[in-house]
Amino acid sequence: MKQLWLLGGAMALIGSALPAGAVSVYSNDFEHVSTTGFTGAGSIVAAPSGQHLLGPLANGGTATLTLNTAGLTSVTLSYDLYAIMTVDGDGPFGGNSVANPDSFVVGVVGGPGLLNNSFANFAGDTQNYPVVGSPDQSGASAINTLGYGNSGDATYGFSQTFAVHGATTQISFTSNTNQGTGDEFYGLDNVRATGVAAIGGTVPEPASWAMMLAGFGLIGGVMRRRAGTVSVAA
Q: Do 113 and 146 reside in the same domain of the chain?
């Protein structure tokens, strides 16, 4: 029994040094009509289908999400981006071009960029998502599900992982359209963030180290005894 106790103690100490699993940091589908965590541009919008989203994001407006990232080493951010009505991507319509696109930009404030792409709904326009020169609505996971007329709507799903280095992390979501929201805008939905915790726990006490080493010694001793008792039939 003592041998099992030592072995169990050693394995428990080893297990306590493993990284913690992913933890939920933020989740909002906006159906509860709350913009908690967000500041700046955007409010709750009800689409013609009845679905709620954060919008309308247009004309350089930026919505900023603040996350509690204390004790985390990285965060995975996922969200649905809606391109709504006559977003014109890289043109040529709507006064848009590669130099003046209807783009959407996501980035960590003071950190890396996560997304900088143009999207188009209007037939004949191109977009640079997923690649430069793509036809309108290329790569969309769903089309015309929100009930908008005037070229409809397209849904794009994204998931991006980045390192964090502080107690709070801010994510900016910026819409670069050049027409009024009666013509075109972007929206956000199903925003979620999960984090990976830093390796936790304190350095073991000397007595704990002794117990762990004894456990390793026990494992080695058992293996040696077993090896010494193997016999071969004549």
A: yes
Q: What is the pTM of this model?
A: 0.77
Q: Give the residue numbers spanning the domain of 66.
A: 19-197
Distance CA 179, CA 93 (A): 12
Does 136 share its domain with 214?
Answer: no
Convert the pLDDT of each residue in 134-150 to its tens digit.
999 999 999 999 999 98
Measured CA to CA, the distance from residue 177 to residue 59 in angstroms comes to 5
Tokens representing 46 are 């009800």
Half-sphere exposure of 152 (CA within 13 A, CB side): 14
Structure tokens, 172: 């900016």
Q: Where are the beta strands (DSSP E) in 128-181?
A: 134-135, 142-143, 153-163, 168-176
Are 10 and 43 members of one domain?
no
Q: Which tokens belong to 28?
A: 């909002």
